[in-house]
Amino acid sequence: MCNEPRKIHEVFFFLAIYLISIGTGGHKPSLESFGADQFDEDHIVERKQKMSFFNWWNCALCSGLILGVTLIVYIQDNINWGTADIIFTLVMALSLVVFIIGRPSYRYRIPCGSPLTPMLQVLVAAFSKRKVPYPSNPDQLYEVPKFHGNNRKFLCHTKKLSRETKSLEASKCNYS
């Protein structure tokens, strides 16, 4: 027989769940982009290291998920919840210590301008030009001049999202 939870317990539970989702949504993309900022795209060796970093990142993420849903659940069911909570706490503390120890060697990119300004400019431009017909010639589309970019490749312009169109146009595409 299960006892009905008190209202304060329900409020505390859902508040904790919402805070976890907000925290996860905030730190995961930040950590990945922070990790990517540690490598210089202009150096071949560091570009390879960046690819290796993301391979290890995904391996560690998937391993943590597998251990979290197998080993920790096994410990919760067969030993007790307190032991599983202590393991979680120790793993989080260890990861925080490793992050803080590496802090002096991190590269920090100084942001220039507000990140919201370009997003708002795109939204305003998209809304104001929503009824403008698509040009028949892709050369009539606006693109950032080459001297503004960092030698990045541009994506091909497509009219459809089907695989056939993408592969056909990708074979004809000239990258800047």
UniProtKB/TrEMBL annotation:
Where can this protein be found? Membrane
InterPro entries named in the record:
MFS_trans_sf, POT_fam
Keywords of the record, alphabetical order, are: Membrane, Transmembrane, Transmembrane helix
Q: Does the keyword Membrane apply?
A: yes
Q: Which residues cross the membrane?
A: 56-75, 81-101
A GO MF annotation of the entry reads: transmembrane transporter activity
Topology versus the membrane, per the UniProt entry?
A: Multi-pass membrane protein
Q: Name one GO cellular component term.
A: membrane
Recorded hits in PANTHER family, A to Z, give: OLIGOPEPTIDE TRANSPORTER-RELATED
Its family remark reads: Belongs to the major facilitator superfamily. Proton-dependent oligopeptide transporter (POT/PTR) (TC 2.A.17) family.
Give the protein name, as stated in the record.
Major facilitator superfamily (MFS) profile domain-containing protein
According to its UniProt entry, this protein's organism is Trifolium subterraneum
